[in-house]
Predict the 3D structure of the following.
Amino acid sequence: DVVMTQSPLSLPVTLGQPASISCRSSQSLVHSDGNTYMNWIQQRPGHSPRRLIYKVSSRDSGVPDRFSGSGSGTDFTLKISRVEAEDVGVYFCMQATHWPWTFGQGTKVEIK
Amino acid sequence: EVQLVESGGGLVQPGGSLRLSCVGSGFTFGNYWMSWVRQAPGKGLERVANIKTDGGEQYYVGSVRGRFTISRDNAKNSLYLQMNSLRDEDTAVYYCKTAVRQLPFDYWGQGTPVIVSS
């Protein structure tokens, strides 16, 4: 199975400041169809998870543009340009290129 | 509004069985791959199974293969997970979700808890 390794696992941030989470996969996430199925999932406290980013950098409907994804191959990044209070929660990277689709361990984002 | 509503979770003894259901509304259910994803208490997420639009293909994570069966009834806008030979480590909240890789169409249910304990 593809192992997804996130860093950091805990991220204290200041409101209004940027934040960045990294994710590395144990093998390339480039699919045979040419797409890279790298996703970012947000889980706010007490809520169901929600996908923010799919195919490395495409935002899901209703996702604020302060969230952006980048990367290629095996190295990917989620950036929040200016952290807001509602961004507190756990963020997971997830690959959907190789079955079984696998998740990272999660990065807990909290306000300093 | 797209909605996914799970049911069927509960307390079951090791070795027992449980059947989870998920009803979708607000979208053309039969047009989309669907998944079950679980989250053990205080832990991360694990994809359990995927099923193709017509039910003709199913994929399972290794830890549940041979014990769990994913199925769907598009006429009833419903997704199912039959869980047999349950183990302590199957204890988790089980989420029903769409499984669309290429489009901005990703929806999760509220989750249903499964507790395997004697």
